[in-house]
Design the sequence.
C-alpha cells in the first residue's frame, strides 16, 4: 500500500472525490459556475497542502517529473503530450458548436399584492383582509369539504391531486403551476394574497410577473367569493400548512 | 427432537407462504388515507362518482365492481402487488397520478381497503399468468409480430399503424357504458399499465379487464407470439418524446416543398411540443384529444415553412353539431421585437391581438388574426400556401409564408427569439372554438448561417497546447 503514501495520488484522490461530492452529492444539482469555483478552491488548498514541506513537495512532483523525463515512461509521456491537447480541442469544439437555448424567463414569483381589487364590480380590500369563513369553527369541516370539491373540478388539472403542482397539464406550461406542498408558496402568504391570485389569475399579474405567459385563469369569472375562500381553506387543510398572518400595524 | 424439527419446518413453510396469503395492509387504516386522498375522484363509497369524476376521461375506477384494468393474473382477481403498483406508479394517460409520495404502509393499507369495496371478487385466489420465455426483437420477430397484429385483428381498434384509428373505435365501451378509446400504440408513454416489455406482453396476454381489450394468450397461434407482438408494438413509436423548449428553424438552400409527404421533411429534426386542454374559458376541454405536435421548420432567402405532424383518429370535416372541422394553428405576436412583452397567450385580447397561421379541414391554410379566445378573423390576401395529408390516424401539414410581413403580420428574422404558441382541434371529438388543446408561449429561432468558428478554434487550441507540452517536456529533459 506504499503507493497510497504518494502525495500526488493523494492529491488526485482528494480532487476527484471533491468533484464527485459537489457534482453528484448535492440535490438539486449545483450550477457549473459554483462547482468550478469550489473546485478552484480545492485545487489551491491541495497545492498548499502538498507544498507544506520540502519532502511532501518532492513526493508530489516526483511522478510528474518522472513522466516528463524518464525513458521507461516514454509511452505514458507520448499519450499525455498528444491526449491532453486533443481533449482540450474537443472541449473547445463542444463550446464553439453549442446551439442557442431558449432565453430564461425572468419573473417575479410572488409580486406585491395591490391594497384592494375590484371583485365582480365591487371594491374588495386585500391588505389586512382575513378569511371570513374561519370565524365559525363549527363550519370548518364543511368549508374544507366544499373547497376540496371545487379544487378537484377546477384546480387539480394543473396543481395536481397531491397539491404538488404535478397535475396532468403541468408539464406543458412555463411557468409551472405552484406547488402548494412547498413551504415557499402558500405557507409564506396570507389568505388574502391567495384570494387576489385566484380571483385575478395570470391576467391580473403585474408586468414583472409576465402575465402574458401565466395560464392561471382569473377565477372571479367562475367562482363566488365564498367558493374562493373555501378552496383556500382546502389548500391549507390538505397540505397541513398554516397561512401567514398580517403583521400588526401600529 | 424430531417433533421440534417438524414444527420448525411447518413454521418455515407458513412463513414462506405468508406474503401471498396474509394481508400486508390494514383496511381500517386504509380508509383514512382513502377519504383524504382518493375520495374526491373515486367517491366515498368507492363507486367512482366523486365530485371530480364527471370531468375525467377515462372516469375514475368504480371499486364496487372489483374489476381492475391492470393485472398480471389469468383470472379476474388481481394480486395485491398489481393494485399496489397502480397506486404507486399511477396510470399514464389518465388522471390517476403516481402516489409514490405516500408512505409504503399507507399504500398497502389502501390496497386492503379497496378490496373491501368488492369482497366477493377477491374470494378466488389470483392466478399469476405464466408468460412464455422472452423473445428478443429481430427482423423475423417484427415480421411475425406484424402478421399476428393482423391475424388477431389488433388493427380493428388500434389502427393499421397503431394510432388508435381503427374502424371499431366509435363502438368501444367499457363495462359501465362509457366510451373508451383504444390505446394509441405509437404513444406508449400513455399506456395505462406501463410500457416495459413485460407490461406490454402481460396486457396482450391477459387483456384489460372492464374494457373491450380481450386476453390474447390463447388466441395467438403460439404463446411466444405474445413477444413478437410486443416487439412489433415497441417498433411503432418512441418510448417517450423529448419535449422541446425551443423550435429551431433550419436554414436551407434547396427548394422547400409544399407536399407534407416529401422526403425533404424527413431530414429536418422535429421538435416535440406537448399540448394541454384549454380550461380557462367556456367551453372548457379537460380531456384534450391532441396532446402532442411534432414541429419541423425551415427557411430560405424569401420564405419560412412549418411542417406539423400530429395524431388524430379521424379525418373530420364535421356536421357542425356534434363534430367540427379538424384544425391547427401557430400563433405569433403581430410584430416581433426584442421586448419580452407579448400578447396574452390565449389568442391575445382586444388591445393586443395575435397573428395566426391556421389550417382547417375543408378550408386549407390561411392567415388570421385573433383578439381574444375564439375571436378569429381571417386576414385579407393569399399570403399563405400549403397542404395537409391524412393517413392512418395522422395528419401532416405544411404551412409556408414569406419571411417579410407587414401591417399586423410578423417579419421573421434570423437569430431573433420569436414567441410562438400552438393550438389544435380534433373536430371528430367535438373540439371547436375554445374547446381545444393549446400551449403557452414557446420560442422559435431562425438559425443564422453557422459561422466556421467551430472548425477554426478547436485546432488552434489543440496546436497551442501541443506546442506548450512539447516545450515543457524538452525543458524538463534539458534541466535533468
Sequence:
Amino acid at each position: 500500500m506504499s503507493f497510497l503514501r504518494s502525495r500526488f495520488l493523494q492529491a488526485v484522490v482528494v480532487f476527484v472525490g471533491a468533484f464527485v461530492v459537489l457534482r453528484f452529492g448535492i440535490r438539486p444539482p449545483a450550477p457549473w459556475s459554483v462547482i468550478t469555483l469550489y473546485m478552484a478552491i480545492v485545487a489551491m488548498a491541495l497545492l498548499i497542502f502538498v507544498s507544506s514541506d520540502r519532502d511532501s513537495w518532492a513526493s508530489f512532483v516526483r511522478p510528474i517529473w518522472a513522466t516528463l523525463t524518464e525513458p521507461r515512461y516514454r509511452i505514458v509521456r507520448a499519450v499525455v503530450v498528444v491526449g491532453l491537447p486533443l481533449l482540450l480541442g474537443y472541449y473547445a469544439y463542444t463550446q464553439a458548436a453549442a446551439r442557442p437555448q431558449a432565453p430564461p424567463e425572468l419573473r417575479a414569483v410572488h409580486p406585491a399584492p395591490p391594497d384592494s381589487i375590484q371583485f365582480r364590480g365591487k371594491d374588495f380590500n386585500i391588505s389586512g383582509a382575513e378569511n371570513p369563513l374561519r370565524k365559525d369553527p363549527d363550519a370548518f369541516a364543511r368549508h374544507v369539504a366544499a373547497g376540496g370539491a371545487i379544487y378537484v373540478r377546477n384546480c387539480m388539472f394543473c396543481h395536481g391531486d397531491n397539491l404538488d403542482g404535478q397535475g396532468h397539464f403541468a408539464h406543458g406550461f412555463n411557468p409551472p403551476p405552484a406547488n402548494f406542498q412547498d413551504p415557499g408558496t402558500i405557507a409564506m402568504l396570507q389568505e388574502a394574497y391567495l384570494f387576489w391570485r385566484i380571483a385575478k389569475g395570470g391576467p391580473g399579474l403585474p408586468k414583472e410577473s409576465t402575465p402574458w405567459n401565466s395560464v392561471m385563469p382569473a377565477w372571479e369569472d367562475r367562482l363566488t367569493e365564498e367558493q374562493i375562500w373555501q378552496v383556500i381553506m382546502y389548500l391549507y387543510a390538505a397540505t397541513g400548512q398554516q397561512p401567514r398572518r398580517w403583521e400588526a400595524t401600529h | 427432537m424430531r417433533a421440534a424439527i417438524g414444527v420448525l419446518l411447518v413454521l418455515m413453510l407458513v412463513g414462506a407462504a405468508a406474503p401471498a396469503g396474509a394481508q400486508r395492509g390494514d383496511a381500517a387504516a386504509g380508509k383514512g388515507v382513502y377519504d383524504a386522498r382518493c375520495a374526491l375522484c373515486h367517491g366515498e363509497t368507492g363507486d367512482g362518482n366523486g365530485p371530480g369524476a364527471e370531468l375525467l376521461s377515462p372516469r375514475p375506477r368504480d371499486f364496487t365492481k372489483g374489476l381492475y384494468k391492470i393485472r398480471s393474473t389469468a383470472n379476474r382477481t388481481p394480486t395485491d402487488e398489481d393494485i399496489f403498483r397502480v397506486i404507486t406508479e399511477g396510470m399514464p394517460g389518465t388522471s390517476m397520478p403516481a402516489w409514490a409520495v405516500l408512505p409504503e404502509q399507507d399504500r398497502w393499507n389502501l390496497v386492503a381497503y379497496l378490496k373491501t369495496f368488492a369482497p366477493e371478487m377477491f374470494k378466488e385466489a389470483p392466478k399469476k399468468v405464466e408468460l412464455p420465455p422472452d423473445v428478443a426483437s429481430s427482423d423475423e420477430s417484427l415480421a411475425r409480430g406484424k402478421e399476428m397484429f393482423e391475424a388477431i385483428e389488433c388493427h380493428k381498434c388500434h389502427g393499421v399503424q397503431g394510432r388508435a384509428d381503427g374502424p371499431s373505435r366509435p363502438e368501444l365501451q367499457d363495462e359501465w357504458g362509457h366510451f373508451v378509446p383504444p390505446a394509441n400504440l405509437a404513444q406508449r408513454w400513455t399506456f395505462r399499465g406501463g410500457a416495459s416489455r413485460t407490461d406490454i406482453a402481460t396486457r396482450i396476454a391477459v387483456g384489460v379487464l372492464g374494457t373491450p381489450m380481450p386476453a390474447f394468450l390463447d388466441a395467438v397461434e403460439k404463446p411466444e407470439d405474445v413477444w413478437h407482438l410486443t416487439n412489433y408494438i415497441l417498433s411503432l413509436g418512441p418510448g417517450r418524446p423529448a419535449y422541446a423548449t425551443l423550435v429551431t428553424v433550419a436554414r436551407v438552400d434547396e427548394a422547400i416543398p409544399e407536399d407534407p409527404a416529401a422526403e425533404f421533411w424527413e431530414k429536418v429534426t422535429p421538435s416535440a411540443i406537448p399540448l394541454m386542454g384549454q380550461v380557462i374559458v367556456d367551453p372548457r376541454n379537460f380531456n384534450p384529444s391532441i396532446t402532442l405536435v411534432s414541429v419541423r421548420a425551415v427557411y430560405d432567402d424569401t420564405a419560412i415553412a412549418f411542417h406539423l405532424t400530429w395524431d388524430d383518429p379521424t379525418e373530420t370535416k364535421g356536421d357542425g353539431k356534434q363534430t367540427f372541422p379538424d384544425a391547427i394553428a401557430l400563433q405569433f405576436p403581430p410584430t416581433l421585437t426584442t421586448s419580452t412583452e407579448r400578447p396574452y397567450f390565449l389568442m391575445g385580447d382586444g388591445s393586443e391581438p395575435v397573428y395566426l397561421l391556421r389550417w382547417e379541414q375543408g378550408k386549407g391554410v390561411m392567415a388570421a388574426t385573433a383578439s381574444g379566445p375564439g375571436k378569429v378573423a381571417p386576414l385579407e390576401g393569399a399570403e399563405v400556401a400549403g397542404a395537409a395529408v391524412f393517413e392512418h390516424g395522422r395528419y401532416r401539414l405544411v404551412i409556408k409564408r414569406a419571411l417579410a410581413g407587414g401591417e399586423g403580420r410578423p417579419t421573421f428574422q434570423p437569430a431573433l427569439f420569436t414567441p410562438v404558441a400552438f393550438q389544435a382541434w380534433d373536430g371528430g371529438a367535438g373540439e371547436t372554438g375554445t374547446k381545444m388543446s393549446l400551449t403557452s408561449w414557446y420560442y422559435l429561432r431562425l438559425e443564422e448561417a453557422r459561422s466556421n468558428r467551430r472548425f477554426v478554434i478547436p485546432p488552434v487550441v489543440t496546436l497551442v497546447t501541443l506546442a506548450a507540452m512539447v516545450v515543457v517536456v524538452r525543458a524538463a529533459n534539458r534541466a535533468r
Notes: Chain A has a mean pLDDT of 91.
